[in-house]
Structures are given as C-alpha cells and as structure tokens.
Specification:
single chain, 423 residues, Aspartate Aminotransferase, domain 1, 4-stranded antiparallel β-sheet, globular, pyridoxal phosphate binding, methyltransferase, cytoplasm, transferase, Ser_HO-MeTrfase_PLP_BS
C-alpha cells in the first residue's frame, strides 16, 4: 500500500495507479544501488503531492507577480532559512527545477557566451553541465577540461593548476557525477584565487554527506554551491544554489527571470521538509552509515578481485572497472537488474569502450542505508554482484532468478519509506 494512500488515483485512473504501485513494489523488492537515487520520507511525499501544485508564484517572497502568496511566501522563506542554517551559507535560492538548471544559473550569473569554463571531463567523472560538448554549457561557453590521474584515479591537482593558470577560465567547477573520493575544496579554492576565477562546487551527490558531517564542506572555499535536493540529501527532485552574500543578487536574477518562470511550490515545501529532517541528529548517523556501508562494500568487492577506480571510496559512491572480468558494464548492469540489484553502467577513466557500452558500473549506498542495511550485509551483496557478473559471462539466467528471490527475502525484513505490501 502506498503511503500516503492513492484512493482517488485508483478510482480515476487505474492504469496509472497500477503502474505507480508496480514501481513502488519494484523499489521495495530490489536492492537499489543507483548512486543518484534514494527513498524520501512519507512527509516529503505528502508535501510533494499537496495542493501547493495548484499555485503559481513567479518572483520571490514579498516580490511576486501573482496574488495569493500568503502561504507560499512563508514556505519558501522556511526552505531558505533551513538551507542557510544546515549548510552554513549566507544565501540560498531554492527555486531551481533540477540540478542542470541550477548549474545553468551559475553560468548566467558569472559568464558571458564564449567565456572559458573549467570542469572535470565527463569520462573522468564530471557532469554534462560542467562544459561537456553535447551540453549547452559546452556549446555556449569555451570548455577547459581537467582529468584524473591514470595511476591513482584521483583528480590531478597539478594539472588543474597548470590548466587554470594557462587558460584563465572565469569559472572553475569542482565536483561531478562519478567521484568516489573526497573533493579537496581548499586546494581548488587556492587555484581559483590564483587564476582569478570563481569557484563553483557541485555537491549534488554529496550534499547529504556534507549536511551530516560525513564529507568536508565547500563553504568558505567556493563562492557558489549548487546541489540537487534528492540523492544523499533524501529530499524531492529539486535543486538549490547557495552562495556568499556578495553573489546573492546575481544568483537570484539568474534563476528568475533569467532561466525560469514560477517555482514549483509543492517541491519547495518538500525541500523544506527534507532540510528539517537533515538537521536532526539521526541524520548525521545516517550519513556516517552511508559511508561505512560504501567502504565495507568496496572492501568486499576488492577481496573478490574487482578493480575499483581510485582503489575504493571515501563517500557513497563506488565505480567498478569490469575489464579484468571480461564483461562489459551494460550487460552486467542489465543482468544485475534481473537479479534484483539495480545500478547503472558507467564509463571509467580512460575507458576504451564507447559511452553507451562502457566498461564500468557505478553504484551507491544511500538507498540501502535508508532501508536499514549495514556493513553486515555488504559481503553478501558483493557475493551476489560477483555471482551475477560471472553468470553474465555464461548467460546463466537461473543464477539471476535465484539471487532475485534471495534479494526479495532479505529486503522483506527492511521497511521501505512510502510503501509496504498489503497484509
């Protein structure tokens, strides 16, 4: 049963209701290891599905272009104040629709078309919006890309400095989408100062870890910080841009009217709820457990002969290079999904294979930590992953079916926020 329940949806549109319930059951029955996913609380679900979706609120609190904002303004102000308190920032904008628009707002605030922007190369773990060629950010601006070292799998800070001083970009991004190690914000900040660039920290993947004290914060190092509000932060699908007070006006103007019209008030409310949850003492325990689980899983995979990019992890994310297993990432990911283990295929640094058929797997421990799994279950999870990879090479579907049954049996003992099987 969905929590909150969906009686009207079942009555009005049983086709959609059935698919929603099927998706909920899928999330309940599978070990969800996609690093960008999580389970939100029933409170976040309720806020997301509230009557706030009926309202249009173009502008900012106290400066709207539509009437009837008596309740919306306090909601947005609560979200802003909670973000500022949780992350220790001087300014927060909670209106961006998602992570990519949030990053585009950073460009609009600081750059003109054609200006140089520097970011981690996509195949090395960066994000599309950090200047990659197929993104608007790589078409409208001049990208400068840095890499990780081939011998360590970690960002080559010497290369970052050399490139920054040679190319003099206006904006430098740190952070990305497949970085398993701690981001050295102080080192990036020093390089940005030396190059005369604005430093932007994209913390979309690690925001919850930062909020919970399980990863260093970019505050005091980066002038601007962008993040999604889901992933490790365990909120709705939204985003925020945070900054020093000096850049508050430019950021707000870039979000609205620069890129967006009215914010999604139901999402803003859900962000406020998630930020309140993240400020509770137990959230720090959750963030710490995410990292503990990731490290335990990484160690168990290493013991089974898996090649992990950078040799392990400091956060929630693990990047596996399957080259030495003789299996490509895509068929392995598809087989794992059939076996009840959900993750994604992913390029690894210096990957000789094509992006749509790469050598690696990316996985994260945020969702399984929300379900209550601990280090105790990580060796078994590594064993299942190993069995599936071997079965993929042999095209052995029977192994996948057996593991899927075992996964369902394990997860039946770990409740899922937002849904439970009908008794």
């Amino acid at each position: 049963m969905h929590q909150p329940s969906l009686p009207h949806l079942h009555d009005q549109d049983p086709d959609i209701a059935g698919l929603v319930e099927a998706e909920a059951r899928r999330q309940y029955e599978k070990i969800r290891l996609i690093a960008s996913e999580n389970y939100v609380s029933p409170a976040v679900l309720e806020a997301t599905g509230s009557v706030l979706t009926n309202k249009y609120s173009e502008g900012y609190a106290g400066r709207r272009y539509y009437e009837g904002q008596q309740n919306v303004d306090p909601i947005e102000l609560l979200a802003i104040e909670r973000a500022k308190a949780l992350f220790g920032v001087e300014h927060a904008n909670v209106q961006p629709y998602s992570g990519s628009p949030a990053n585009l707002a950073v460009y609009m605030a600081f750059l003109d078309p054609g200006d140089k922007v520097m970011g981690l190369s996509l195949p090395m773990g960066g994000h599309l919006t950090h200047g990659w060629s197929v993104s608007a950010t790589g078409k409208w601006f001049t990208p400068v890309r840095y890499d990780v070292r081939a011998d360590t799998g970690r960002v080559d800070m010497d290369q970052v400095r050399d490139l920054a001083l040679k190319e003099r970009p206006k904006l430098i991004w740190c952070g990305g989408t497949a970085i398993p190690r701690t981001i050295d914000f102080p080192a990036f900040a020093e390089i940005a100062r030396e190059a005369g660039a604005v430093l932007a920290a994209d913390i979309a993947h690690i925001a919850g870890l930062i909020a919970g004290g399980a990863h260093p914060s970019p505050v005091g190092h980066a002038e601007v910080i962008s993040t999604t509000t889901h992933k490790t932060l365990r909120g709705p699908r939204g985003a925020m841009v945070m900054s020093t007070a000096e850049h508050a006006k430019a950021i707000d103007k870039a979000v609205f009217p620069g890129l967006q019209g009215g914010p999604h008030d139901h999402t803003t409310a859900a962000i406020a709820v998630a930020l309140k949850e993240a400020a509770q003492p137990e959230f720090a325990d959750y963030a710490s457990q995410i990292v503990a689980n990731a490290r335990a899983l990484a160690d168990a995979l290493l013991e089974r002969g898996y090649d992990l990019v950078s040799g392990g992890t400091d956060n929630h994310l693990i990047l596996i290079d399957l080259t030495n297993k003789g299996v490509a990432g895509k068929p392995a990911a598809q087989a794992l999904d059939r076996a009840g283990i959900e993750l994604n295929y992913n390029a690894v640094p210096f990957d000789p294979r094509k992006p749509f058929d790469p050598s690696g797997l990316r996985l994260g421990t945020s969702s399984i930590t929300t379900r209550g799994l601990t280090e105790q279950q990580m060796p078994q999870l590594a064993a299942w992953i190993d069995e599936v990879v071997q079965a993929t090479a042999k095209d052995d579907e029977a192994v996948l079916a057996r593991i899927a049954d075992q996964v369902r049996e394990l997860l039946a003992g770990y409740p899922m926020p937002g849904w439970a099987p009908t008794p």
